[in-house]
Structure formats: C-alpha cells, structure tokens
C-alpha cells in the first residue's frame, strides 16, 4: 500500500488540559508524541491528528464513527479500503508496528542495540522524579547512568542519530522521552543533562532541529502540568 492510495488515517490523541493557550495543541503523552512524529516523518498526505478533550471523548469518537468506548488514547483509525473498512488500534506497540508496515518510508532500524540502549531511560526518570529524601541520590545516579550509556553508544558508533544519519524508529522513541526529561526534570528537580555527555547533547540538538519533531510535540506547559501527578 502506498501513502498516496491509502485511505484516511486518524490518530486520536489526548487534548491539551491548559485551555485558551495557543501553544497547547496536544496534551502530554509520550506515545502520542512518538506516533505523531512517525506520521510526520512518513509524510502521509491523508493523515489527521485529532486532539481529544477526555471529558468529551465519547462524543468526539462517535462523531468519527467510533462506537467502542473502551478504546484508549492514543487511538489509530485507518480506513484501508474504498468501501470504508477500518482498522482500529489502541495498543502502542501495535500502533507503531502498523504505521511501519503500512506506510513508507520505512523507519525501522537494522541495529537492535539502537532499540535496547534507551529502553529503561524513561522509567528511570519517573523513579527519580518520584523520589524524595535520601533515595533521591540513588535514583539520580541510575538516571545519569542510563544517559551515560546512550552517550557512550552514540560516541562509539560516531552517529548523529541512533542508527546513523537519518531518524529511525528508535529516535522516534527516544527523542520524545528526552524532551519530557529535560522539561519536567528542569522544572521539578532542577535537573539538567550533564555537559560532559557531549554526544548526547549533540543528539538532542539535532533532534530539536527536525521539523517533524517540533511539529509533533506538546507545549512545555502541558508537560509541567501533566507531571504533577508524579511529584505530589
């Protein structure tokens, strides 16, 4: 299936919780950012992102003909035939796999280490964010060790991105995670990624320059508001 002949592709994502703010187009959600990033890199012409106010989720989904209210956000809906047959996917790994299988250019990485090197980073950050008192030092070390592993991987392989000079799926996973870590970490813990992790810093700078990454991220205010749940 080519991107040109595919039917309408809808990605329902969490809408902003901060009302009336022009910067807030989407709510904070690490998976939504990943999938919007992938869709933007694939340049799917008939793709549409639908922010959903969770208070009115039922009505919004019904407006688009989605009757199953048990489906979670993010939700991918793809009309894959002219007759209107649709695929509905709300499991994050399956959404990622579906986008990669159905739409070009393919973003998969041939290097399995590019996937593995960043698997634990976000969980370690959440543990650090929640930590208080003496345990905080240990959680900070664990987070820093994970960041150092990524930095070493980039240094050893002399790559701009995790798999080479182009953005692939592991980058669509990692760059949103690092964005959330930078914003929430700075606000709630005064945490900054250490300057000595120079390869990682260059990686972040390269990601920040990518238009698809910028267009698919939520506002910093949404992250700060959403991450209150981890520190209260």
TrEMBL record:
<dbReference type="InterPro" id="IPR036282">
    <property type="entry name" value="Glutathione-S-Trfase_C_sf"/>
</dbReference>
<dbReference type="Pfam" id="PF13410">
    <property type="entry name" value="GST_C_2"/>
</dbReference>
<dbReference type="GO" id="GO:0005737">
    <property type="term" value="C:cytoplasm"/>
</dbReference>
<dbReference type="GO" id="GO:0016020">
    <property type="term" value="C:membrane"/>
</dbReference>
<dbReference type="GO" id="GO:0005254">
    <property type="term" value="F:chloride channel activity"/>
</dbReference>
<protein>
    <submittedName>
        <fullName>Uncharacterized protein</fullName>
    </submittedName>
</protein>
């Amino acid at each position: 299936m080519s991107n040109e002949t595919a039917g309408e592709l809808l990605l329902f994502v969490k809408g902003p919780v901060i009302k009336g703010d022009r910067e807030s187009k989407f709510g904070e959600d690490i998976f939504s950012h990943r999938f919007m990033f992938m869709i933007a890199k694939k340049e799917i012409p008939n793709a549409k992102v639908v922010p959903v106010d969770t208070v009115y989720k039922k009505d919004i989904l019904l407006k688009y003909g989605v009757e199953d209210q048990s489906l979670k956000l993010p939700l991918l809906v793809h009309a894959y035939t002219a007759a209107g047959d649709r695929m509905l996917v709300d499991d994050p790994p399956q959404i990622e796999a579906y986008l990669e299988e159905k739409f070009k250019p393919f973003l998969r990485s041939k290097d399995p280490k590019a996937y593995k090197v960043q698997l634990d980073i976000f969980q370690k950050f959440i543990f650090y964010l929640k930590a208080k008192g003496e345990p905080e030092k240990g959680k900070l070390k664990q987070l820093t060790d994970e960041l150092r592993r990524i930095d070493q991987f980039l240094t050893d392989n002399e790559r701009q991105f995790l798999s080479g000079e182009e953005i692939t799926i592991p980058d669509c996973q990692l760059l949103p995670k690092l964005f959330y870590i930078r914003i929430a970490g700075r606000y709630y813990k005064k945490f900054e990624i250490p300057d000595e992790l120079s390869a990682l810093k260059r990686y972040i700078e390269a990601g920040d320059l990518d238009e698809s990454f910028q267009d698919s991220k939520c506002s910093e205010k949404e992250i700060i508001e959403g991450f209150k749940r981890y520190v209260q």
